[in-house]
Amino acid sequence: MTRTAERTEKAERRTPKGTRLGYGMRLPEYLSVISVLSALSVSCKENSRPPQEFDGPGALGYIQTQVAFGPRIPGTEAHRRMGDWLDSLLRQRADTVIVQSWNHLTARGDTLPLRNFIARFNPTAEKRLLLLAHWDSRPTADSPRSRDSTQPVQGANDGGSGVAVLLGVADVLKRTPSGVGVDLLFVDGEDYGDFTKDTADVLMGSRYYGAHQLPGPRPLYAVLFDLVADKDLQIYQEGNSLVGAPEVVELVWDAAKDLGYGGYFIASPRHTLIDDHIQLQKAGIRAIDVVDFDYPAWHTPDDTIDKVSSASLQIVGDVAMALVRREQ
Ligand SMILES: [Zn+2]
């Protein structure tokens, strides 16, 4: 994924850090928050929210497993092993798993074996949602900010986080099936080439999916999750999503606000990005990108497990589940 235009200075911080529970609080402040929360839990017992279905710490475990494979670069053993792991996990959770396999010939003449995995829940339902993420990681840490562009990207956040959210959703749907049909699409080869030069060697899985859509009803809409586990989570509305499917952006940011996550899902535009949602939009699907592009470790060797958090995965996972539950 890349941005379509350079931005200038980072915008002013939108949300005072002090409003985020657990961040930057001194002990007395923390204790007073706890006492307020306990009082609330006593007084609001009758209409308290249901327990969170999505397991943030479990999702963080899914990032740890992915990073442990090593960089998931198409054509490598780590990539093949990660794909096999994903395949087996999905078969234990979904009603149906469809694998799209093909070979891609790159601009440099290499042949890459690529796979998209589609985990289908309630596959006969007419009304369906599509949630997607890329599962490959980038061969080179070639951001201008990178301290070493000869290294690969570990992809804890870039690749790892979207997969973790989707696997967390799969766990919930296995436990508590949904009336609405849900397809979880794990696309391959998003991040392989140079976005400015080798445009055929990026977004490969989403392009393939767009050209080989599943038979049956189209999803109502699609949500792409990319870079969603930064400890400093701030998800702005993305420009191409606002142009291509503004009503889906509104629906997702409203769902976040209803959950009390308005400080993390910030209802204003910021970056405009080329990402997998573009390929789905081209294929006629109302697709948007949920992405936190304010991530200093993006495309550097520092996109590592210490930069991501279960708290951020919890927030994004809760929003994903709210989208599913509001349709059933
Ligand atoms: Zn990337």
Please give the largest β-sheet. Answer: 6 strands, mixed
Low-confidence stretches: 6-48
**Which class of the largest domain in CATH terms?**
Alpha Beta
- Rounded radius of gyration (Å): 19 Å
Label the overall shape. Answer: globular
Strand order of the largest sheet: 2-3-5-4-6-10
Number of structural units classed as domains: 2
Cα separation of the termini: 32 Å
Task: Give the integer mean of the pLDDT values.
Answer: 89
Task: Compute the number of helices.
Answer: 9
How many individual β-strands? 10
The chain-level structural class is: alpha/beta
Query: Can you identify the CATH superfamily of the largest domain?
Result: Zn peptidases
> Which ions, cofactors or small ligands are bound in this entry?
zinc ion
CATH architecture of the largest domain: 3-Layer(aba) Sandwich
H and E order: EHHHEEEHEHEEHHEEHEH
CATH topology of the largest domain: Aminopeptidase
Task: Quote the beta fraction.
Answer: 15-25%
Helix share of residues? 25-40%
